[in-house]
Amino acid sequence: MEFSIKSSSPDKQRSACVIVGVYESRKLTPAASALDTLSQGYLVDLLKRGDMEGRLGTTCLLHKVPGTLAERVLLVGLGRERELNDKAYLEAVTAAFKAVHGSGASDAAFFLSELPVQSRDLAWNIEQAVLIAHASEYEPGTLKSTHDKKPRKLRKLALCISDKVHQAMAETALKRGQAIAAGVALAKDLGNLPGNVCTPTYLAEQAQALAKTYKFKCEVLSQKELEKLGMGSFLSVAKGSRQPPKLIVMQHNGGKKGDKPVALVGKGITFDAGGISLKPAAEMDEMKYDMCGAASVLGAFRAAAELKLPINLVGIIPTCENLPDGDANKPGDIVTSMSGQTIEILNTDAEGRLILCDALTYVERFEPAAVIDIATLTGACVIALGHHASGLFSNQDKLAREIEQAANTSRDRVWRMPLWDDYQPQLDSNFADIANIGGRAGGSITAACFLSRFTQKYDWAHLDIAGTAWKSGKEKGGTGRPVPLLVHFLLARAGQAG
Ligand code: BES
Ligand code: MN
Ligand code: ZN
Fold first, then answer.
1. What is the three-class DSSP state of 157?
2. 179-493: which CATH topology?
């Protein structure tokens, strides 16, 4: 889809579809009102007759409205005017694009970006509209051998503003939205690929291809190099699989030389069967998504590179499979991590922390200003927070607040969870420095506590995205989260918060 910012009024649109809003009180937005005047009350008549009530999420497609130059007018219900908050806006815009795609129009003029959404501004409205437009046309690259005939899709979208003074700001928001959407699409694509295609080697190749396109540094460490580094914990998970593990190390050096980098560390388990502590069969296919943390790091890198963010950025992805095998980890095994701490593996299905701990030790060499790890780490986090918020844990209140701020701006939300020392004894082991599980109570917290033992040398935050990275059921698929959150965090660090 081709996007543009246009400063123009709805009556001048020769577009195939003009998109305007109507409130539940049947009050027209200024853009709808202009069309109504032009058509001598056609829209108001229609509302009076009850064809459209303006309820949130409803739409009404009109053809050849008298007096207008457009082929179609799409009325979009906005709900109650007083209740037009960000959630309502997103719902209305989602409904609008769904209707446009079904209409056969190949181009459209969008007049909802200037709606007075509570606590949000024009730039936010535009960025979100761009993200929703992209999401509305996203299709997973399927491996189906026959294809349904697809309806004609929107090719051009003009985001209309009424005043030229906002042109530059609107263009910036558009660019941002485009970059984030590209990162989201990459994260979705990688997540949706099956485990037999998206292997650790495949992920590494994708990282290298991305680095080549966007001209950032990428190095892939092989099993031998990981052995030399002493990553006994990471390697113990990988040894139950025939696919060799990889450590992907990426660097985008957009900032000043010597500026400490922000580091993103993503869990890249390309399939998690649980290992010897085998998972139940039901929905086990979804464990192909256990590399969504890694995918979000790649997505954030793509967006950061596309926006040429003036910031130094490091991306680390430990990637392997977790399978049962004669050579796999066994409950009770004790391994030595790169940090020197020994770990008793009481459950081989708690493998994410075992690969992350070594990556979190490795990242020390970059003297990072802050480290954020992103992982589909625990089912317990899904029980605690459901599918709306990612779990946020941090050893630094200021960093946590920055992430909360970015989550609010991007509406890719998080909820802070405790990391109190009181939970640490749950990880005591009789035979090693630490156990890899802490019992059922507070499962996502003890997982974060485990990681905290390896992150004491820097400011660190952990995002548990087990509930937010993909959708189950009929709409099964990756969500691309938390790419929007990460990009907004990086924008703020680059001094470009908006
Ligand atoms: N990848 C899973 C976490 C997960 C489970 C994500 C369900 C999304 C949905 C992780 O490796 C895992 O298996 N965690 C265990 C930890 C337990 C053994 C302490 C879990 O959550 O059951
Ligand atoms: Mn697991
Ligand atoms: Zn896992």
1. strand
2. Aminopeptidase (3.40.630)
